[in-house]
Each structure stands twice: as C-alpha cells, then as structure tokens.
C-alpha cells in the first residue's frame, strides 16, 4: 500500500476517515476507545472498532498506552498528503 492508495481509501471510507481525523485532531495525546466512540457519535462500539481495526491493519493508526494515535507513516505521509490536497484543514 502506498500513500496515494491510503488517501484514496480514506476518501472512499467515510467512517474510517472520520476516525482517522478524530485521532489526527489529538496528535500528541491520542484518543482512548471510549473517547473515540463518544466523538464518533455511535451508540454501538462495533463501527468504531471495525474502523480502528482497518486503520491499524493499513498501518495508519497504532495502539499505545491505552490510546490510539497516528503512526509516523499516518502522520507524516497520509495526513500531510490530505492536507496538501486540501482535504482536511490543518490540525
């Protein structure tokens, strides 16, 4: 998978993009699963967990000390690529 493929995947995967951007909004601290669920606005845990699993499998997000944060690749390559494409406002 490359940067372009991951950016296109996020554009096509609205739920995954929402979770990615929620985590990107907290670059330094990351977000716990509970915070993600509350911010995502879902009554159920499963959509958030499914999107997280897909993001982790793609190497965009990692679990660290009870929270989820962008990987270096997710932050430096994909998030910056999205910003360059004006897909997301600077965080």
Structural summary, described in words:
There is one protein chain. This protein has 91 residues and is mainly alpha-helical. The chain has a single domain (3-84), classed as Winged helix-like DNA-binding domain superfamily/Winged helix DNA-binding domain (Arc Repressor Mutant, subunit A), CATH 1.10.10. 59% of the residues lie in helices and 9% in strands. It contains five helices and two strands, in the order H-H-H-H-E-E-H. It has helices at residues 3-12, 14-24, 33-40, 46-57, 72-84, and strands spanning 61-64, 67-70. The protein has a two-stranded antiparallel sheet. Strand 1 (61-64) and strand 2 (67-70) form a beta hairpin. Helix 1 crosses helix 2 and helix 1 crosses helix 5. It is globular. The chain starts with a helix and ends in a 7-residue tail after the last helix. The mean pLDDT is 89.
Ordered list of secondary-structure elements with their pairings:
Elements: H1 3-12, H2 14-24, H3 33-40, H4 46-57, E1 61-64, E2 67-70, H5 72-84
Helix pairs in contact: 1-2, 1-5, 2-4
Which CATH-level-2 architecture? Orthogonal Bundle
What radius of gyration results from the CA coordinates?
12 Å
Structural class estimated from helices and strands? mainly alpha
String of helices and strands: HHHHEEH
Low-confidence spans? none
CATH superfamily: Winged helix-like DNA-binding domain superfamily/Winged helix DNA-binding domain
Overall pLDDT metric: 89
Assign the CATH topology.
Answer: Arc Repressor Mutant, subunit A
Helix percentage range: 55-70%
Q: How would you sum up the major sheet?
A: 2 strands, antiparallel
Task: Tell how many strands the DSSP assignment holds.
Answer: 2
Number of domains: 1
Strand order in the sheet with the most strands: 1-2
Specify the CATH class.
Mainly Alpha
Given the C-alpha coordinates, what overall shape results?
A: globular
Report how far apart the termini are. Answer: 24 Å
How many DSSP helices?
5
Portion in strands = 5-15%
